[in-house]
Amino acid sequence: AQPPAGGKTGGKKRKKKKKKKGGDKEDKGSQENKEDDIDASIREVNEMLGELPLQPATRPEPSTLPIGYKSLLSIEHRHLNPENEMKRIFGASIVREQRTRTRNKQHKRSWLSQPKPTWPPLSKSGISMKLVETKRGCQHFTLEHSRDYQKVQFDFLDAVESLNPNNITAVLHLHPYHVDSLTQLSDVCKMSEDLQMAAELIERALHTFECSFHTLFNITQGSCRLDYRRAENRSFYLALFKHLTFIGQRGCYRTALEFCKLLLSLDPDEDPLCVLLMIDFYALQAKEYKFFLRMYQEWEIHRNLSQLPNWALSVAMATFQLSREEEAEEEEADELLQKALIMFPSILFPLLDKCSIHPDKEVENHKFFGSQAQVSQPEALSQLVALFVGRNSPLWKEPEVMVWMERNVKVVLDRVDRGDPLVEEGRKKRQLRYQGTPRNIYRHIIVSEVKDATAALPRDLANAPVLSYDPLPPTDAIISYTRPQRRRAPAGTEGEQSTLSLFLRSMLPNYSAQQEQAQRLAGQGPADEAEGAVGGQDTDLHRGIHALMDAMRDLLTNIQPVNAPREDDGRESDEQDWDDEFN
Q: Which residues contact 504 (CB under 8 A, 6 or more apart)?
């Protein structure tokens, strides 16, 4: 008879268990011996150097931030990828078909962008991040430029002053990850309605920044700060703002909301790009009503969010939508909407006009919501109202929302006719507050490009030149490095150089004599202006230059070059060299 199968193996297993138990005892003994050795070593050191007195636990500095502040601005990585939201909206199969199947192995994994396989490899960008200080539980960082990156930055500034996008493209061809060139060229693509390329250039800029992050710079905590006064940091702010705008235009509102939280967490006290003027829109579009209402309840005490028109009406909207979801009463939402309309009566007619809705005779003829409400309000409030109407009007086109609005407008008129004290209180607040528009609100209006708000800008600002890669820099900006002054041409040759350069620029298709004159005058310093005043013959010189250019154009059009005979082998080699150079 054969022994039962597995009998020997079972015995072996039991023996192994016994050995293992014995081994555990040996490990325990060895660990205890190690701990005794460590304690003995510590005692010897204390006997030699003396024991240090026990320090009482230091309490952290009291923070001015409200309870739950960190959790409000904390970020989840999965919400930073718009593809995840697209999968929830359209289904994973559709998104998988549209996504390229080529695996991108030459770029690091990125949370802020999705690197494309067509992007050039990134070795060293020239941007680094440094930890400046840790204060009140927040870590303050700053971005820095290397010497080589500073030289590229100077070349970029020269390209911008040339008013020729091809020069910016040339800089980007040599340095494909120069951030300001990517941002500037993205605006050029946007103006030419190439939105896909514009968005991709901004993503490449974000990828550049993310590869330069400090090891302690954790975007998920909401406790990392960047000083907007430094020019190196401002580029990161602007790239985030433009990126979330492109994402919102694709309908990925939840992802855009997450980027709003990230952008706000970098400097929540100053809010240099006024994220508070748009976070309500993305929260309502993403149906994150509870988050938005919680943020309002915790921030209202120290930020007075109810004094912003977008927050006053969006809080009422969020309360109304939440009551619909939970099938609860709408009294609280009604009261919030009535207070908002009493505080900001000038918002009703522009909002209804934007929604293509005509008010009834009773509302149209009442003076409380009439033209006087819009004329009498301060200019700063008019800009906030125009920004809210231009951005948030799609949220108010829903039929149920309009019925809710109509019902509460009638109640507001009754309260006005009865002499509700809240009406007079709101009028006094409108006159005392909103005296002057802060610079960050102007900056937000310019970058957001909401037409209704841009039209409400004052003339001196609307007509002033604004650099798209650094719109309205702070007045107290911190300058890390300065651009070297250009060396002036020797006396007697400056006129010849300017004539030649002016003629060469005139050959470009986008040449404009008015722009050239404005650029030349803007580049003159005090010394140049003084010399021009002494000469007094600038107009005659400019006329002579234009006459020379006209004559040269006629000459060039009449020239017919003779084609020299060339051998086929030489032609083919030249064509091959041309292809090799640009491929």
A: none
Are the C-beta atoms of 472 and 439 separated by less than 8 Å? Answer: yes
- Tokens matching residue 288: 């994150």
Rounded average pLDDT per 10-residue block, the chain, 583 residues: 45 46 48 56 55 39 43 86 83 59 56 87 90 92 95 94 89 94 93 92 95 92 93 96 95 95 94 96 96 95 93 97 90 95 94 92 90 88 94 94 94 93 92 90 92 84 78 92 68 42 51 53 42 37 44 45 45 44 42
Residues whose CB falls within 8 Å of the CB of residue 320, separated by 6 or more in sequence, listed in order: 330, 333, 337, 401, 404
- Residue pair 270/228 in contact by the 8 Å Cβ criterion: yes
Residues shown for the chain: 583
CB 505 within 8 A of CB 511: yes
CA angle 457, 459, 463 (to 5 degrees): 100
Distance from C-alpha of 433 to C-alpha of 440, rounded to nearest angstrom: 17
* Cα atoms in the 13 Å half-sphere on the side-chain side of 234: 22
Q: 């037409």: which residue's tokens?
A: 451
Q: How far apart are alpha carbons 332 and 77 in whole angstroms?
A: 35
- Report helix, strand or coil for 504: helix
CA–CA separation, 455 and 471 (whole Å): 17
Q: Are 402 and 357 in contact (CB under 8 A)?
A: yes
